[in-house]
């Protein structure tokens, strides 16, 4: 009873101080930085070797609790700089008590992820996490795990946290078509996302290069379209990934990109794909047939296309329980469609290619909606300067737009039209940029010494540094009425030059930078950007992620972490 009264006092204190966010760097920090983090008298307390976590039983919270208890007792994290914190003389912390107001709330877009956390400083036996939902409780468990360090294990004492995200959609998009990633690697990605309080794995499963997803009603799509029998995702694989995501508070959002980016479908159904397996940039022709090697687009003018597409939609949605389904609809290439006789006939009868795309949308969108899904499309479907549909066909209550071009300008256009928006601006959030071009026989790389190399052949270069990502304000230029339509953002790793061997280092810790910006913001309580003080914290967090099995790349020499502030452009200590 005493513990409950003490925690109630902490909650009252949270409500008084809820609007305060401190820029102070404490001896132990949490990533992403909590909304409210109070530690008036930094000290630590030993953790009992018999430490327990009590919680309401839940199908997904219970395994998360077991996982975190094991981590807390076995990690023995040693910070690069030993925290100058005195130990209390109190008895070791015996338990963490988790209370959840609503254990039935499903993991879905917009679910409440808030939590409050307190650790004792007065000899109390328990720490407390209070959350509205089990998903908020998972976020609190991650925070608690980051307050634990040392051998013997100790925990930060007298800490008071109230925390909730600014944006409800915080994700990583990974392309598994251009290069294949094994199931274990996808599970590791989800694990790292959960550590960073990211909550959406946007799985770009198929593209022109391969079709690795086994569709039960259309087995030949993967049977002929995957790179090999070993490079497929079975329904059992999908179930494993989705369940693992649930246990980590990460939703899995499937994308079947269509009608463009579908060359791999032609291995099973050549009759429904235009310009399949053609050289992407024909000799003597200025227009290319695709944005990159790997041609092929579904033909909306023939009925067979919709027989196959509807089977794919139905089976994919049956495997993925999330309320969102990503339908792609980006980068329609006019010249690819124009190679087909049936398309030529359609155009000769006074049809346009935009009308052809509208035909495809009109035949597929109702199918997706009938299965109780909200549809996500890439912005091209209404913003392309070439082939696009009338926005009246895509009601904002049923459709979310994902933007990747022209930074804040396209975000502004989409919200002005009333759409909810996921921001993945290539200028800031594309993690594959800066590695040059992947096409061979490229004369851009055969230039006289001294030639300006520009972006090194990368269409979206230069490389996006963690500071570039951290400092991007995804609601920049929007009015107070427009900004709430931005539901969040995703960093994206397209896999022309990536696979599982480099996945961790391409994504982390740059995705961590976005994670904090979308969780608690990139500014301190005065409104100033806080990337300077974030540097040392991210350095330490990257080091801890590596110790947890995530191959995050370094952002500075280790010397910088051992000498805080010495590697800034302007000398300042961020202790």
Automatic annotation (TrEMBL):
Pfam families: Glyco_hydro_20, Glycohydro_20b2. Its EC number is 3.2.1.52. CDD domains: GH20_HexA_HexB-like (cd06562). Residues 30-147 form the Beta-hexosaminidase eukaryotic type N-terminal domain. Keywords: Glycoprotein, Glycosidase, Hydrolase, Signal. Coiled coil: none annotated. The keyword Nucleus does not apply. It catalyses: Hydrolysis of terminal non-reducing N-acetyl-D-hexosamine residues in N-acetyl-beta-D-hexosaminides. Residues 1-23 form the signal peptide. It is an enzyme of class 3 (hydrolase). It comes from the Eukaryota. Residues 167-521 form the Glycoside hydrolase family 20 catalytic domain. Belongs to the glycosyl hydrolase 20 family. This is Beta-hexosaminidase.
């Amino acid at each position: 009873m005493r513990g409950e009264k003490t925690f109630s006092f902490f909650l009252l204190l949270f409500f008084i101080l809820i609007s305060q966010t401190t820029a102070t760097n404490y001896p132990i920090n949490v990533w992403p930085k909590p909304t409210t983090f109070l530690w008036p008298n930094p000290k630590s307390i030993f953790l009992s070797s018999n430490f327990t976590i009590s919680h309401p039983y839940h199908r997904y919270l219970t395994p998360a609790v077991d996982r975190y208890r094991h981590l807390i007792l076995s990690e023995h994290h040693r910070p690069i700089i030993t925290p100058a914190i005195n130990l209390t003389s109190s008895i070791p912390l015996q338990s963490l008590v988790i209370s959840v107001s609503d254990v039935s709330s499903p993991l879905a877009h917009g679910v409440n992820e808030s939590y409050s956390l307190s650790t004792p400083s007065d000899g109390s036996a328990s720490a407390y996490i209070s959350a509205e939902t089990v998903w908020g409780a998972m976020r609190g468990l991650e925070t608690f795990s980051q307050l634990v360090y040392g051998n013997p294990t100790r925990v930060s004492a007298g800490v008071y946290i109230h925390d909730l995200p600014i944006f409800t959609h915080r994700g990583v998009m990974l392309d598994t078509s251009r290069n294949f990633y094994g199931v274990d690697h996808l599970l590791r990605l989800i694990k790292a996302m959960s550590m960073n309080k990211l909550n959406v794995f946007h799985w770009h499963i198929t593209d022109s290069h391969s079709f690795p997803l086994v569709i039960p009603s259309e087995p030949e799509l993967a049977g002929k379209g995957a790179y090999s029998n070993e490079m497929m995702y079975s329904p059992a694989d999908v179930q494993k990934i989705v369940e693992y995501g649930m246990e980590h508070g990460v939703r899995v959002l499937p994308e079947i990109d269509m009608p463009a980016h579908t060359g791999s479908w032609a291995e099973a159904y050549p009759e429904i794909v235009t310009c399949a397996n053609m050289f992407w940039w024909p000799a003597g022709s200025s227009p290319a047939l695709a944005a990159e090697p790997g041609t092929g687009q579904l033909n909306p003018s023939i009925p067979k296309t919709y027989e196959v597409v509807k089977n794919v939609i139905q089976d994919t949605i049956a495997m993925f329980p999330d309320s969102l389904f990503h339908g792609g609809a980006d980068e329609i290439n006019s010249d690819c469609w124009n190679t087909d006789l049936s398309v030529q006939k359609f155009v000769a009868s006074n049809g346009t290619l935009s009308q052809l795309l509208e035909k495809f949308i009109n035949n597929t969108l109702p199918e997706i909606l009938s299965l109780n899904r909200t549809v996500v499309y890439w912005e091209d479907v209404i913003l392309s300067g070439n082939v696009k549909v009338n926005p009246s066909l895509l009601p904002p209550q049923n459709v979310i737009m994902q933007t990747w071009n022209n930074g804040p300008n396209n975000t502004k256009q989409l919200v002005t039209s009333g759409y909810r928006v996921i921001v993945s601006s290539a200028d800031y959030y594309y993690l594959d940029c800066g590695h040059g071009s992947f096409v061979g026989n490229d004369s851009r790389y055969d230039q006289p010494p001294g030639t300006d190399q520009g972006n090194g052949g990368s269409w979206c270069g230069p490389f996006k540094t963690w500071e570039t990502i951290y400092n991007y304000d995804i609601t920049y230029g929007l009015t107070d009425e427009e900004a709430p339509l931005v539901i969040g953002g995703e960093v994206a790793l397209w896999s022309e030059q990536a696979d599982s061997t480099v996945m961790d280092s391409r994504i982390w810790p740059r995705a961590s930078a976005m994670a904090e910006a979308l969780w608690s913001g990139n500014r301190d309580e005065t409104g100033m950007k806080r990337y300077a003080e974030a540097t040392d914290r991210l350095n330490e967090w990257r080091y801890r992620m590596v110790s947890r099995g995530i191959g995050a790349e370094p952002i500075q020499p280790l010397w910088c972490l051992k000498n805080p502030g010495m590697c800034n452009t302007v000398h300042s200590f961020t202790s």
